[in-house]
Design goal:
The structure is a single chain. By secondary structure, the protein is mostly helical. The protein has one domain. It is built from 8 helices and no strands. The relative contact order is 0.11.
Length: 218
């Protein structure tokens, strides 16, 4: 089962894409498991609201544009990291606690990991859509995903603030997960942009190393 990439011309129809069905099945199973076994159901529901909306948009827009398998793998990886964070209400995530105790950190860093992963894993799908759907130049498509990650990261922080204003104080603090850091939002936004920049840098280097050499001029 070959994995298609952004530059692959052929796209397997979604109804015939076995990889996509496997990824969707795994995500659905873990999502249902989290529903019944998460630490704080109210926080889990808040954390998953945007996931449901975004996945709904992806399903609705399937006739508008079909992504490559590589992009679907990136999206799947990010969503699973997020679902794992939401399962433990982020601030009590067990992986974050292990990192915190191992490196003597003053806060659980799992939310930082996911914000970085948002930029790192979603930059490739952004670039693919920019090139294949919007016909953006290849040069511009190296930088625009970084700007998108920065912008969406900022919008998400504003959504978090709005939710915290209307939710109970305890639920709001759990959802926002600042953990006493007044610069939490700024760091999360910066990490998303950094993740996207690193991803674009790695993809660029990979293309340079694996691309066909240009013929020597006569």
């Amino acid at each position: 089962m070959p994995i298609s990439t952004a530059t692959t011309t052929h796209r397997t129809p979604l109804t015939e894409n076995r990889l996509l069905w496997i990824l969707s099945g795994l995500m659905l199973v873990y999502w249902i498991y989290g529903w019944f076994n998460c630490l704080i159901l109210e926080d889990w529901a808040l954390e998953n609201a945007l996931v449901i909306i975004c996945l709904g948009i992806m399903i609705w827009s399937r006739k508008w544009h079909t992504l490559s398998d590589a992009s679907y793998l990136c999206i799947f990886a990010f969503v699973m990291l997020h679902l794992f964070g939401a399962f433990y209400a982020y601030t009590q995530n067990i992986v974050g606690e292990w990192i915190q105790n191992t490196w003597n950190l003053w806060r659980n860093p799992y939310d930082r990991i996911v914000h970085f992963s948002f930029g790192f894993l979603m930059a490739y799908p952004y670039r693919e859509i920019l090139i294949n759907k919007f016909k953006v130049s290849s040069k511009a498509a190296w930088f625009i995903p970084i700007e998108i990650a920065f912008s969406l990261g900022t919008i998400f922080e504003m959504i978090e603030w709005a939710v915290a204003e209307f939710a109970t104080r305890e639920l709001g603090e759990t959802y926002v997960a600042t953990q006493g850091d007044v610069w939490d939002a700024h760091k999360d936004i910066a990490l998303a942009a950094l993740g996207a920049a690193i991803a674009m840098g790695l993809v660029y280097l990979f293309k340079k190393l694996t691309g066909k050499p240009k013929p020597a001029s006569l």
